[in-house]
């Protein structure tokens, strides 16, 4: 308000009203985004970044994991990259401290179900119960956590996209998978990431479900290489 040129009480009042409306809108935004209200999630499976161009969105599945996640958080902090963590509910219950560290670092949370089941034949009611339990586990660790995405284990979607969207979570797919679940060597993972990068791709990686040290080291090496080639890192699109 310090730059307001006072040209009479009418103008000042109008400016104050405008500021109040702007503040009210700002205050409303987080409430919309935390899943407690209409979020605009759709059943479409998004696999691209919010912004186009030479952008990639890194996503890490199946954690949190006490061996890999702390080192991964270190790597992402060093390179100033924010990622999406698709959390396995039982692992969340075992390592709530790691979920808090993920959230505190500003990364985005994604529901990856309670027990990593193939839900392709599940009823909507059973899916909903599992997704609710997973969100509850995450919010036991991080109260009021935003969980804007859902990813089906094995990409076996079945009826999950509609249920997730109804719960305010956007189904999150991927465009590039480098098969890091069968670790082929750090150098090979770096090569697959560099060669597989396409504009706007959501990239599937893993920090849980096994020894993912090669993935973490590959991410550490490939981020500066991709940046040097003009790539930048961002989040996935928020809706389909
Ligand atoms: Zn998974």
Task: Provide a descriptive summary of the structure in words.
The protein is of the alpha/beta class and 240 residues long. It has a single domain (45-233), classed as Glycoside hydrolase/deacetylase (TIM Barrel, Alpha-Beta Barrel), CATH 3.20.20.370. Helix content is 42%, strand content 12%. The chain has helices at residues 9-33, 69-78, 89-94, 96-104, 124-141, 160-166, 186-196, 213-228; strands spanning 55-61, 84-87, 108-111, 149-150, 170-171, 176-177, 201-206, 232-233. Helix 2 (69-78) runs parallel beside helix 8, helix 5 crosses helix 6 (160-166) and helix 7 (186-196) packs across helix 8 (213-228). Zinc ion binds next to loops. Pfam families: Polysacc_deac_1. It comes from Streptomonospora mangrovi.
DSSP strand count = 8
Taken together, the total number of domains comes to: 1
- Main sheet, how many strands, which sense, barrel? 8 strands, parallel
User: Into which percentage range does the β-strand content fall?
Assistant: 5-15%
The top level CATH class name: Alpha Beta
Any guess at the CATH architecture?
Alpha-Beta Barrel
Which class best fits the helix and strand makeup? alpha/beta
InterPro entries: Glyco_hydro/deAcase_b/a-brl, NODB_dom, Polysacc_deacetylase_ArnD
Pfam family, one: Polysacc_deac_1
Signal peptide: 1-33
GO molecular function: hydrolase activity, acting on carbon-nitrogen (but not peptide) bonds
């Amino acid at each position: 308000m310090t730059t307001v040129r006072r040209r009479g009480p009418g103008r000042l009042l109008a400016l104050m009203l405008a500021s109040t409306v702007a503040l009210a809108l700002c205050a409303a935004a987080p409430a919309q985004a935390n899943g407690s209200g209409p979020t605009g999630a759709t059943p479409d499976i998004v696999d691209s970044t919010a912004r186009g161009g030479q952008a990639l969105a890194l996503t890490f599945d199946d954690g949190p994991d006490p061996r890999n996640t702390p080192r991964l958080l270190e790597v992402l902090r060093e390179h100033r990259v924010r990622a999406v963590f698709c959390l396995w509910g039982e692992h969340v219950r075992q390592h709530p401290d790691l979920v808090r560290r993920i959230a505190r670092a500003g990364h985005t949370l994604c529901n990856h179900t309670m027990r990593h089941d193939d839900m392709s034949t599940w009823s909507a009611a059973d899916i909903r119960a599992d997704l609710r339990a997973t969100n509850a586990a995450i919010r036991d660790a991080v109260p009021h956590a935003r969980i804007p995405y859902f990813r089906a284990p094995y990409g076996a979607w079945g009826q999950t996209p509609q249920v997730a969207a109804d719960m305010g979570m956007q189904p999150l797919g991927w465009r590039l998978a480098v098969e890091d679940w069968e670790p082929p060597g750090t150098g090979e993972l770096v090569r697959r990431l560099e060669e597989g990068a396409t504009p706007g791709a959501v990239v599937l990686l893993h920090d849980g479900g096994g020894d993912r040290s090669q993935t973490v080291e590959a991410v550490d090496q490939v981020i500066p290489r991709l940046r040097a080639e003009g790539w930048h890192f961002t989040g996935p699109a928020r809706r389909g």
